[in-house]
């Protein structure tokens, strides 16, 4: 086993570490799913994973490619209908952590997965909202995983698919959104958190070998940096081993 | 009740209809979608929470004028390029869209199945969907004064689903991830169900949804009719096929060849507006 | 998680609470109701679609100040005489009522389980319930202008149900007629589930409802805890006991003897107002 | 086997004859349940019975005492939740016939099962509404079974639990009730139907040996009698045999 790792790997490991055992987590497909499945196999064996296909308390033994792979149903505590997962589980605030991706994210952690450019004359049409707007609204908190670049980290998203902290303090409350919104944004460079006062995303942690300037250069606004900037602990050999067995990067 | 697929599509899916082919990754009625292309339906309003590869194909073939949806992508792979081409370039024809979130779409089907004109949910607040989608409004709780989102019922002319089994009377049984299929069938004026097999007796299965024959207009026996998606207990998802679709769909000519080879359908005529 | 019944009731059901003991003929949490009487709870708001014999007993014992319901009777037998005595004569204490239809109550639980403040249905129009029940209002569809009935969410302080099985982690499994129990548990702040047995692994059963342990506050093992109602797969309904209740409940003294003999509870003190 | 029969028996037979095969019938407990179970065993084998406990397409092999007996679940096509039976099946108008009982019924077939006397100071408190208001509103038509007497057949019900024809023509439409309402009232004396013009219940049929005057004497309003008053055909030996095996009156 190598002790080196890719930037995607440390991003996934950092995201997995956000999850604790006993937490109920609404898992999106792709990077969020990989991170959640890593967490459940390492430090958070009691993590309760929900996928929007209606699989509650699932523990897939392989990483699903889609949100509704058969393995999710086979290993779930129970499978419920799609209305039920949204109305009975997500909407009342029963889910602790919502795990989302993003095509664009802005200074206030608002998320765009709908369209680049103008809605009616798009430059790039993206898949759209899916479950994200209500995940962002109703989970007790939201963790976003997204690779950091000036294309993705923009001053203002082209389209607000899912509300983060709106235009700043008090906006979520004004909109009646009951969860705390994005509390952490995990990237391939580090970790951003909303400033408690301004709600503006602030760099609080960098991955080993990454500087604050690297992160600022990959951000489309004047990124604030926490005075006590932390460094992500290196992935452990165990974390890397489990992650690579999940992604198939171990060649097995 | 039990009819060949081509007859089922001919009788139940008409030009201009609002058609929902539902399935949440699992049990997607792909064969029925292909038959709709083969029969050259036009001006359809397509409805689905998760339009994926089969809707990319139906849209690319020029069958659809509108799409009502909440997430349009190739699950686990990326974007839908025929869908993109229709929206970004109007090819082969412009595609009008009515865009919601999953929670909104699910509740629209629930309202449709329930015979009420709208549903109430906590949703959409602060998103730009509110400005783009006229079918998102608000309603005030008459008890607390809270404002919540309201969405109108969905009542497709016809819903098409795929299920594992039916009996000879037309009762339909599906299990595994059952998604929104029950509500989509109950909300529709007509329904067509393709099944893996017809059996004499539907032995109960844990997690099953049973659709009584009185809400099923027609059943067609189409083994493998959900491929490349999957049918729990029958066959697995063909992930490679989803990945392979990406290359086909990126290119109009490759898509035209796919239409000819796989469906036996002519290349779409571009520029034919709604 | 798994506690003796007396401890479960002591910890979770408090004087003045809004309490739903749900069950639609099947799986009625009778033993838990008797424990509530035994512990002498007072000023409860009882909620149930179909208050039957066990609510007749809890009301007759003077534990309840209010009843929220849609059908109060002895199923297949006739009326509830302790319920009648409370409403007609205020004995042993006056019972305030909030009366709905089944459709309204079911939707109130659905709204409660869904975290929205109200539900919309086609109901009540033209009935005299509208005049007597302030929790029936109307709401206008923002799309069609139609007026529909609106009812507020039900969110009991505690819901008590009986189920066939739980596992050691507190996941609960019930099947057969599952009624409104899922929604009643999801709508409640706390929940207590009595079960026939605890097993190592909950083998899936067709038609099951599974309540994940995170929505179950406590489980108590009470074999036969639904008698004289029934537990599908365990024991049958004791129809004779329902018929026998009629004579006991018609007479205050016979009821007091039943309280002493069957529950070990003192006779109710009359005249104690809300 | 005797050729005699009781007035309850001919009432039940007459009610059963209202049901045809292929009909979906929402069945109340008691007399409606007996009649529906008789129909399914005689002339209407395809009758699709729903009980409000959520049992769809049930065929109990014995008569249930309650609305939720185990035999209903065991013999059903499927068992659904209570919200589902009301929201997905009854409310959208999928049920052809609703079968109701009554404590009081009035000239316009409005039904009271709530209270005799004043609501806030009742003479007799009855069980209440149950599923009846929405059954009466949403089924394509409603059949009422009730023993005829001046106590039950009143000029004006003390409480409208379930709307029949309101105060006359146009009332159901005005209230937005989508079903046709009560189309037949089956009693132990005969059959009443709403007059097509006035909606007032009119005696259209008497059971053998019953006169129009008997029925008028058992009615609390000036009961109209159809000019072409019919007589109920005698119960057939088969009907009586099946009915008695259901009710246990055959002593088996």
Q: How would you describe this structure to a colleague?
A:
The complex is a heterotetramer, with two copies of chain A (252 residues) and two copies of chain B (274 residues). Chain A has 252 residues and is an alpha/beta fold. Helix content of chain A is 25%, strand content 24%. Chain B has 274 residues and is α/β, with parallel strands linked by helices. Chain B has two domains: 5-100 and 156-260, Glutaconate Coenzyme A-transferase; 114-152, no CATH class. In chain B, strands 1, 2, 3, 4, 8, 9, 10, 11 and 12 form a nine-stranded mixed beta sheet that branches. In chain B, helix 5 (102-114) crosses helix 7. Chain B is globular. Classes of the chains: A alpha/beta (252), B alpha/beta (274). Chains A and B meet through helix 3, strand 4, helix 4, strand 9 and helix 5 of A and helix 4 and helix 5 of B.
Overview features:
A: 252 residues, alpha/beta, 10-stranded mixed β-sheet, 3-stranded mixed β-sheet, 8 helices, 15 strands, globular, B: 274 residues, Glutaconate Coenzyme A-transferase, 2 domains, 9-stranded mixed β-sheet, 3-stranded antiparallel β-sheet, 9 helices, CoA-transferase subunit beta (chains A, D), NagB/RpiA_transferase-like (chains A, D), CoA_trans_fam_I (chains A, D)
Low-confidence stretches of chain B: none
Major sheet of chain A: size, sense and barrel closure? 10 strands, mixed
Please report the total strand number of chain B as a whole number: 12
What is the name of the CATH superfamily of the largest domain in chain B?
A: Glutaconate Coenzyme A-transferase
Tell me briefly what this model is.
By secondary structure, chain A is α/β, with parallel strands linked by helices. Chain A has eight helices and 15 strands. In chain A, strands 4-3-2-1-5-10-12-13-14-15 form a ten-stranded mixed beta sheet, sandwiched between helices. Chain A has a three-stranded mixed beta sheet with strand order 7-6-11, with no helix packed on it. Chain A has a two-stranded antiparallel sheet with strand order 8-9.
């Amino acid at each position: 086993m190598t002790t080196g790792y890719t930037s995607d790997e440390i991003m996934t490991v950092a995201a997995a570490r956000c999850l604790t055992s006993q937490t109920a987590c609404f898992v999106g497909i792709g990077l969020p799913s990989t991170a959640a499945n890593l967490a459940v196999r390492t430090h958070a064996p009691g993590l309760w994973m929900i996928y929007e296909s209606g699989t509650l308390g699932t523990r897939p033994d392989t990483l699903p490619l889609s949100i509704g792979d058969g393995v999710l149903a086979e290993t779930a505590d129970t499978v419920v209908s799609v209305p039920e997962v949204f109305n009975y589980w997500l909407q009342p605030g029963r889910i602790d952590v919502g795990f989302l991706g993003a095509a664009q994210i802005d200074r206030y952690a608002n998320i765009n997965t709908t369209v680049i450019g103008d809605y009616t004359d798009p430059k790039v049409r993206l898949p759209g909202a899916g479950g994200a707007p209500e995940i962002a609204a109703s989970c007790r908190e939201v963790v976003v995983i997204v690779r950091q670049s000036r294309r993705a980290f923009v001053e203002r998203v082209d389209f607000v698919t899912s509300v983060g902290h709106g235009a700043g303090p008090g906006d979520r409350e004004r909109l009646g959104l009951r969860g705390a919104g994005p509390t952490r944004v995990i990237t391939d460079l580090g970790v951003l958190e909303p400033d408690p006062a301004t709600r503006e995303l602030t760099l609080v942690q960098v991955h080993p070998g990454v500087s604050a300037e690297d992160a600022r250069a990959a951000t489309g606004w004047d990124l604030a940096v926490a005075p006590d900037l932390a460094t992500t602990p290196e992935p452990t050999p165990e974390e890397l081993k489990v992650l690579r067995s999940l992604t198939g990067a171990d060649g097995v | 009740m039990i009819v060949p697929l081509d007859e089922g599509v001919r009788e139940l899916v008409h030009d201009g209809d609002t058609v929902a082919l539902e399935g949440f990754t699992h049990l997607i009625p792909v064969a029925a979608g292909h038959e709709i292309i083969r029969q050259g339906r036009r001006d359809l309003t397509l409805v689905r929470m998760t339009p994926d590869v089969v809707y990319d194909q139906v849209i690319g073939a020029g069958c659809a004028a509108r799409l009502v949806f909440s997430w349009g992508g190739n699950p686990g792979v990326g974007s839908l390029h025929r869908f993109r081409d229709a929206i970004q370039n109007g090819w082969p024809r412009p595609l009008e869209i009515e865009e919601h979130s999953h929670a909104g779409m699910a509740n629209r089907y629930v309202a449709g199945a329930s015979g009420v004109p709208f549903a109430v949910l906590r949703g959409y607040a602060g998103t730009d969907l509110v400005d783009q989608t006229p079918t998102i409004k608000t309603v005030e709780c008459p008890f607390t004064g809270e404002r919540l989102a309201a969405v109108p019922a969905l009542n497709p002319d016809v819903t098409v689903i795929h299920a594992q089994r039916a009996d000879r009377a037309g009762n339909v049984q599906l299990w595994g991830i059952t998604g929104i299929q029950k509500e989509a069938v109950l909300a529709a004026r007509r329904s067509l169900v393709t099944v893996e097999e017809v059996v004499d007796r539907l032995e109960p299965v844990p997690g099953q949804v049973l659709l009584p024959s009185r809400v099923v207009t027609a059943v067609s026996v189409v083994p493998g009719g959900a491929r490349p998606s999957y049918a729990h207990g029958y066959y697995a998802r063909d992930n490679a096929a989803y990945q392979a679709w990406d290359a086909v769909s990126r290119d109009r000519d490759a898509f035209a060849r796919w239409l000819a080879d796989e469906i036996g359908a002519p290349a779409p005529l571009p520029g034919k507006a709604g």
